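tool_call: predict_structure(chain=1)
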Amino acid sequence: MEKFVQITKGKVNVPVEAVWLAADEESAARAEVDVRVEGEDGRVWTIPTFHDGGRLLGFRFAAPVPGTYRWTTSCATDAGLDRKTGSFEIEPYTGDNPLYRHGRLRVAANKRTFEHADGTPFFWLADTWWMGTTARLDFPRGFRTLVSDRLAKGFNVIQIVAGLQPNFSGVTDAFHRQQGNEGGTPWLKKDGEYAFDRLNPAYYRHADDKIIALIEMGLMPCISGMWGFYLPVLGVENAKRHWRNLVARYAAFPVVFMLCGELHMMDYALGGEAVSLPERERVQQEGWTEVARYVRSLET
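tool_result:
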């Protein structure tokens, strides 16, 4: 790791960020680096990093209370990415964005409703933009038009996929251009074969623009990683990599995560194979259960 840039000052509930230049692109894309953040009260968070293209590697953190927060990186496979340190100075939030002012969402004590971290009730009224991170919704013009309309109608949640989309077959169309945005498709394909190679940071930089803009306008994103039928093609380990990236990029923001859409759904290309449906459902359920446990372990 040669150098890093960080935002050293921030506000409660608003993400701050540090970004590095790793030694090379392969290190940035493949290494799993965690960041330990410790507050003045002794509370500790372990946060995954995300690859942001080229040699760029970074992490995002949102502090729940004012104070000084110190961080240290940890990487078992690359000494150049290990034991780097920094700090953030966090002040109270004084703006009027309800998502930052009241904090992230949780289930209320009655187990029937939602509320913000400060106890403010939250009524979930969601609009679905599954393919909103793709080029199908142009940014910023079409995006602004749609946001303005939904705000005027009282919506406060936008359900959106940040990855492989539901309207395609995982068996044949995982790398279809309509899966992508200006940065390309969510995953890059291995040369000469229909197989997943690595996540595409350029896609997620464009997805960032829309997801962060939703939050700045007071709309809470409900982020789905993909549709359930992609798992047999993508594989459990790649699904974990997919979700590690989403947690690293978005968990610091006031968002809600949806593991996948329609967990048991069979791939469109396999619709005629009804005899194998129970076995495919079992495989997908077991695989997504493993992925869910992994995601839970990342959210500290």
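agent: The longest strand covers residues 67-74. Proceeding to next step.
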